From TrEMBL:
Keywords of the record: Oxidoreductase
InterPro entries: NAD(P)-bd_dom_sf, SDR_fam
Protein source organism: Streptomyces liliifuscus
Name of protein: SDR family NAD(P)-dependent oxidoreductase
Keyword Transmembrane helix: no
GO MF term set: oxidoreductase activity
Lineage: Bacteria, Bacillati, Actinomycetota, Actinomycetes, Kitasatosporales
């Protein structure tokens, strides 16, 4: 894994990939590099204008790319269902699903379905999407699901009795909980896939400290100019580029021998550097917590993974 970079990405010709949040940052770089290696890439984005612009930009940077925009709002389960249905009408399999899109440290809010925004978008939207696309993943030999978490999952464990932070809301605590949920989801998904003998690999990755617009969205929304400026300075002088931040995701999505329930991040203290095995909080490996979160996620979304009933 030492020194692994985009030159090491295996040929992706003939493979179909969905990347959520592919209009900018880690998601865009992930989609672009997979397309550069021959994959047909679906850029699943909430904003049509930004999604189309990203697809156009990708076509310029990779002239022979097979890439298309498709609308997906992870904060609206109807949109998730519409995306999955449209995908199923067009394709009969899915080789790689990159659950990348996310929001960070937002003021308290609710999704279209009434979930706390960070938990609803970062976890529940992706839980529903993966479940609805599961038949296509099972139809592709050696398919992968890559969930993009964060080293900041260590800020907080989930509270199974208050998943929507109704008792008390802290923006960073809610973010940490949503990123812990990503890792618990991968942990339980990997267990269930193994139980039915599937070769689909569920793995997780994180970008470390990468310069993307994720850092400045919340301060800009609230008019906190000093906080926005602080984030911009950190991105300029401390963070690694989006290109470098995407490497752990690309590794988890393509490298030979990636193990189920693995967690890949930057090699230098989890902040920057080439992909390496990443540390994770012990609570993200708790079988019972993974099972309970799974059960609650099925109840809240109405999406059941019938093929993985064990």
């Amino acid at each position: 894994m030492s020194g692994w970079n985009t030159d090491d990405i295996p040929d992706q010709g003939g493979r179909i990939v969905v990347v959520t949040g592919a209009n900018s940052g880690i998601g865009y770089v992930t989609a672009r590099e997979l397309a550069r290696r021959g994959a047909r890439v679906v850029l699943a984005c909430r904003s049509e204008s930004r999604g189309v612009e990203a697809a156009d930009r990708l076509a310029i940077e990779v002239p022979d790319a097979e890439a298309e925009f498709a609308p997906l709002d992870l904060g609206d389960l109807d949109s998730v269902r519409e995306f999955a249905a449209a995908y199923g009408r067009k394709y009969d399999r899915l080789d790689v699903l990159v659950d990348n899109a996310g929001v960070m440290a937002l003021p308290q809010g609710r999704t279209a379905d009434g979930f706390e925004t960070q938990f609803g978008v970062n976890h529940l939207g992706h839980f529903a999407l993966t479940g609805l696309l599961l038949p296509a993943l099972l139809a592709a030999p050696g398919a992968r699901v890559v969930s993009v978490s964060s080293f900041m999952h260590a800020l907080a464990n989930i509270d199974i009795n208050d998943l929507n932070s109704e008792r008390k809301y802290g923006r960073w605590t809610a973010y940490g909980r949503s990123k812990t949920a990503n890792l618990l989801f991968v942990h339980e998904l990997a267990r269930r896939l193994a139980a039915i003998g599937s070769d689909v690999v569920a793995a997780a990755a994180h970008p470390g400290y990468a310069a993307t617009n994720l850092m400045t969205v919340a301060p800009r929304m609230e008019g906190r100019r000093n906080s926005e400026r602080f984030m911009e300075i950190g991105s300029r002088f401390v963070a690694q580029s989006a290109e470098a931040g995407a490497l752990p995701t690309l590794y988890a999505a393509t490298a030979p021998g990636v193990r189920p329930d693995s967690f890949t991040g930057p090699s230098i203290l989890g902040f920057r550097g080439s992909p390496a095995k990443s540390r994770r909080a012990r609570w993200t490996l708790n079988d019972r917590a993974g099972q309970r979160l799974w059960e609650e996620s099925e109840r809240l979304t109405g999406v059941t993974y019938d093929a993985l009933k064990v």
